[in-house]
Amino acid sequence: QVKLVESGGGLVQPGGSLRLSCATSGFTFSSAWMYWVRQAPGKGLEWVSRINSRGGITAYADSVKGRFTISRDNVKNTLYLQMNSLKSEDTGIYFCATHCDTSAQPVVCAYRGQGTQVIDSS
Description:
Elements: E1 3-7, E2 10-12, E3 18-25, E4 34-39, E5 45-51, E6 58-60, E7 68-73, E8 78-83, E9 92-101, E10 108-112, E11 116-120
Parallel strand pairs: 2-11
Antiparallel strand pairs: 1-3, 3-8, 4-5, 4-9, 5-6, 7-8, 9-10, 9-11
């Protein structure tokens, strides 16, 4: 059974930083492309970032490029998202996911966690 559990969200002021984590189990993490997707209030699911199985290939949505960094630890079966220079528009629920079709609008993922919330505290 695929299990994805996000943590690390919270209140943050614009310009601040947060590090999200996603603990995984129930599948071969080291073989899977992994994704972070998010949902802003009242909007559909949006792709944020992806990373290949070995961690050497990453990609980012234009809205977060240069501010967010995705990474993974294939020993700990954990996915990360370092978010810096946060903006009000980054507010939303962030989900760790796998088996995603990022060409779909909104993005579709076969598996995702329950999410962790990032809230603008200003």
